[in-house]
Amino acid sequence: MTTTMVGLRGVGKTFKGRNADTTALTAIDLAIEEGEFVSLLGPSGCGKSTLLRIIGDLTPPTSGEVTVNGKSPEQARRDRDYGMVFQQATLLDWRKVVKNIALPLEVMNLPPAERERRAREMLDLVELGEFGEHYPWQLSGGMQQRVAIARALALQPSLLLMDEPFGALDEMTRERMQMELMRIWQRTHTTVVFVTHSIPEAVFLSTRVVVMSPRPGTVAGIVDVDLPQPREFETREHPRFFVKLNEVRETLRGAGVD
Amino acid sequence: MTSLRKWGPPTLVFLAVLAAWEIWVRVAGIQGFLLPPPSEVITTLRQEWNVVWAAGFFTLREALGGLIGGSVLGVLAAFAASRWVVIREGVMPFYVAMGAAPIVALAPITNQWFGITNPVSKMTVVAVMVFFPVMINMTRGLGDVGSDKLDLMKSMAASEAGTLRKVRMPNALPYLFSALKVAVVLSLIGAIVAEYFGGSRDALGVYISQQAGLTRMAEAWSGIVVATALGAALQLLIVLAERLLIPWHPSLRG
């Protein structure tokens, strides 16, 4: 039995412009179950990031209804149900790595000893144990993003929201980070909503890929990725992997993306 | 080796300029009341040391008083501006315009207000001079945080005060330091120039202008040497504080 982590019903978003309004999203219906790894995939400007921000209560929807963990997004945010990872690692330059990871724990007013313990634990989870006393700028881009993931997971959120987190990394680092994320996901069983415009990335990581159409963004189709778990290096060579890649491509084409 | 490489060239240039000055004055036979040779300035400085040093210290106190007062007010005003849009948008353009005004021109007025020999008259000029760059830079530092960082804090349901303390204030420190580097220079300029309009007999600006008026140029120049040394010392203090407080800043990364 599963429970719904994210429920979207008729969600739309229109940005007011000086000359004309822009409809970014329209009539989005989607339910994400607990423990799922769902990717929002679509071309640039399809509103996938906006949708993620709506789920995370960073942008209000213009219409429709959003529930997270059975609550309003605002309540979920106040209850600290979210972990967020952005395209840029967004680490605080003036804090050492371990202190960056401890930031949400400080915001929550946990006692210092507890903060330190949990931050170290997260540091080990992302396999950066010996880099705790480094400053962010002393780490590579991939390592910085791992710190950002550790920080997002420090609060043990019920929902991890990731906005093109590997978009700024080179291809090789990117594939390594995908493996890393799968390993972490296997251990934490956090529900993940992951925004990307890379088809292989979406297929490799997700249990379901939500394919979105160009503006105004809407759900063009959903591809169930029934590849064996845990995902590992060989998954990318699995015959079903290519079948799923094509299925996603076809759905995108059907939505009017060439 | 590295410190020799770093400090060697400027030291050599400095000594060369002094030597050229000395030789030029002696060879061209320039009169002492126009430009004294450096050797004479050094001799005079040693003879007059007690007087000049006391004057320097007096003026330093005025400069520091104004610097601290103006900076504290500038920082407080920046907090207010970053907190309330009304101040930021309504008052800031006015501040920016005021920052361009030659504030030292206020000196005769503050002399009237507080009394010509009262150090407060000079401190006020300095404080007003320092206020604007500190206020403007600090406001920028509290504001230029990046929407990602603000989104991050919001996603953690951080309070406004928490965001201020953990993100805005550390972010503003480098901005504050670059303002303070300008401010220390302004503070000495402000104090000394304000003293040219009249002030206590113990003040450096008064000493310099009186000695120059009597064409005792070596004395005037030794006053300028002390003023320069004080400026350099203040600047050095700020740089040291900066290294201590923001070692993470790109300009200081080893």
Question: What report would you give on this structure?
Answer:
The complex is a heterodimer of chains A (258) and B (254). Chain A is of the alpha/beta class and 258 residues long. Helix content of chain A is 36%, strand content 24%. In chain A, the strands form 2 sheets. A 6-stranded mixed sheet of chain A has the order 5-6-7-3-8-9, sandwiched between helices. Chain A has a 3-stranded antiparallel sheet with strand order 2-1-4, covered by helices on one side. In chain A, helix 4 (112-125) crosses helix 5 (141-153). Chain A is globular and about 50 Å long. Chain A starts with a strand and ends with a helix. Helix content of chain B is 81%, strand content 0%. Chain B has a single domain, classed as Orthogonal Bundle (MetI-like fold). Chain A binds chain B through residues 53, 56-58, 77-80, 82-84, 86, 88, 90, 92-94, 103-104, 106-108, 135, 137, 155, 161, and chain B through 146, 148-149, 151-158, 162, 166-167, 170, 173, 246, 248-250, 253.
